[in-house]
Structures are given as structure tokens and as C-alpha cells.
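Please check this.
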Amino acid sequence: MTLKQVREKVMTLRTCEVCGNEYDKCFEVIMDGKSHTFDSFECAIHRLAPACTHCKCLVIGHGVEVDNYIFCCANCARMSGEIGAVDRAD
């Protein structure tokens, strides 16, 4: 690798906002108009996924939304008093 290539690679390194890893394959996610930089989907999920209102697990699928509350599943919604909550059908 030439000195020029090394400099170009160093200049293209970006830093993950969750783990601090400097990586040339970081990616950007724009959410609610704010830019976020991550080195993995794991870090992106950790930072951006909503937590279930009932059990606090991270909701990385569709989840269930009732009155602006997000739940990981209909069971958690029902456990929180949302009697009619059902999981999404195909």
C-alpha cells in the first residue's frame, strides 16, 4: 500500500457513535432529521430501536403500537391493559 493509499484510507475512517470503533465501512442512518454513524447493525439497533413499554426489550421488528406506546408484541400490550391488542397478520 502506498503512502497516498494509507492517507486516503485514514481519511475515510469514520467513528461509530455507540462503540467508538473507527472503521472504513461505517454507514449513516438519518432518523427524525438527525444523522447517526454506526459500524454495525448491532450498534444502530442499540441506539435507535425503541424499547417495549412493558418489558423494555428493544423492538427490532414491527411490534405493536397503541396510542403512541410501542410494545414488542400484543401480549405485552395486553399485559399493559390494551385488551384488544393483536399482532399484525401477514
Notes: The first strand starts at residue 14 and ends at 15.
